[in-house]
Amino acid sequence: MFTSKIIISEDFERIKEEMIEKYGYNRLRLIPKTPANDFLLDDARLVEKESYIAEIDEKIIVLMAHNFRIEAQNFLLKLLEEPPQNVKFLIVVPSKNLLLPTIKSRLICEKRNIQKSKNSLNLKLDKMDLKTLFEFLQENENLDKNELMEKITLLTEQMVKIKDFNAKELENFYESYELAKLNSKSSLILSTLLLNFYTKK
């Protein structure tokens, strides 16, 4: 029997494989089907719809994303608090700071120390001063769209591990990612993110 929980991990694929091996693919419902950069309100609505499809046996709805939109989290609150019969939830996210306190209070939290190879930022955010900030901006001023989107994802994951951000501040990370999709200039987006982080107490 599975207990609804949050798992803190960046290795979505490994968690998925573990769940399939332990509980079987037929008991899992992956929403979205593959881990997303952002878990959206539409995804939350799909979770609700799936939750109310009656099942004889227990089913586990698995939510995996690098970031969870605030409105999507708020939409899920009642569902997590009062889940339908035989429905359990697993939320997998890189940092617990990406989740609202109201979400975290409803589920147990399990941290996995899994190292996943990924491109390095080459920037120590916890020791960053203005000099290293501007050096980083110079090194990354001509990124293409995909490179910029990857940098924003990496920055977001690292920043939320170091400082606590409120709902409005978390929304800024999502907006930066959306601007990157529109081919906005990398130096402007990165400088805004880094300066906001640097000046945040």
TrEMBL record:
<protein>
    <submittedName>
        <fullName>DNA polymerase III subunit delta</fullName>
    </submittedName>
</protein>
<dbReference type="InterPro" id="IPR027417">
    <property type="entry name" value="P-loop_NTPase"/>
</dbReference>
<dbReference type="Pfam" id="PF13177">
    <property type="entry name" value="DNA_pol3_delta2"/>
</dbReference>
